[in-house]
């Protein structure tokens, strides 16, 4: 692999960070941007009104380029959960409406909907036969009352990938809203919302997008977004197009589009400026190229596993495979000790539901993975 992304990250203090599914590290350009943003707060005269107002607009434009949608349709958030709660609390519900969720999915995809049961909304869980719900399973599970199907693009507990087009087509056919959590995919896999049958997409910014914590965004199909009944009128959003010298206009704007639902404090320059630099860096490298690099890393790791000692729990190959690789020792009770030993050897992974999760990204190398594989063989 001729490209060397690793030089643009770190230093990692002689550790191997194979845990991007938990936190993605900032690239150097983002660290520089964070230092500049911090200097604005140290000496606030650097933070002009024009700069203060421009930061959210620039972030929205960068995210629009990332996912293939107009910047005006981007809602700035602070997490994946932000977009899910907008939908859960903004859609108009009737008693008897049904929401389909996936058993074993990430908690962020479950909790926002559960409290709707107090309004008579029915929550039903799908139990896929394989790692992810297939389109035929979904279609057979829909009822006349189904209004929403919510799932992850890449499952945090299996590493399996949903083909967004297949369930999206089923949902369109039956007039069901298709809501997707993309946090474990975006930044490692390309997405063009204009070519994908989605109704809502939400993601954090601190995993594969390599931004600071408490960053995120969502996209909601414009007609669905306009149908939301959600009481939000943030003063700074209402100020759009006016400078801070003219603030006492209390007219509630109806021309804001997606900005109406931005999280409060969108000019959070300490987070947004480095995140913007990180996303711009990924776009400059090319998401397709990053995905291909990561694919080679995962292939190298999987092919190097000793099948006599370890069982691969994630998809081995094909479109259902992601950059999250789940492994268990043949004696599962040893996984916890293996995790601890790796930590002591300065190799950072995750232990999830008793299984070993490796999640490399573009800053990792095959040489690093070889060292990990060699150590796994001794356990």
Q: Overview of this structure, please?
A:
By secondary structure, this protein is an alpha/beta fold. Helix content is 35%, strand content 15%. The protein contains 12 helices and 13 strands. It has helices at residues 28-42, 49-67, 80-90, 111-114, 135-141, 165-173, 222-227, 235-238, 269-285, 287-304, 335-344, 366-376; strands spanning 16-17, 74-77, 98-102, 122-126, 146-152, 177-181, 200-204, 216-220, 310-312, 325-329, 347-348, 350-352, 355-358. It has a 7-stranded mixed β-sheet with strand order 2-8-7-6-5-3-4, sandwiched between helices. Strands 9-10-13-12 form a 4-stranded antiparallel β-sheet, covered by helices on one side. It has a two-stranded parallel sheet with strand order 1-11. Helix 5 runs parallel beside helix 6. The radius of gyration is 22 Å and the shape is globular. The mean pLDDT is 95.
Secondary-structure blueprint of this entry?
Blueprint: E1 16-17, H1 28-42, H2 49-67, E2 74-77, H3 80-90, E3 98-102, H4 111-114, E4 122-126, H5 135-141, E5 146-152, H6 165-173, E6 177-181, E7 200-204, E8 216-220, H7 222-227, H8 235-238, H9 269-285, H10 287-304, E9 310-312, E10 325-329, H11 335-344, E11 347-348, E12 350-352, E13 355-358, H12 366-376
Parallel strand pairs: 1-11, 3-4, 3-5, 5-6, 6-7
Antiparallel strand pairs: 2-8, 7-8, 9-10, 10-13, 12-13
Helix pairs in contact: 1-9, 2-9, 5-6, 10-12
List keywords for this structure.
single chain, alpha/beta, 13 strands, 35% helix, 12 helices, four-stranded antiparallel beta sheet, 379 residues
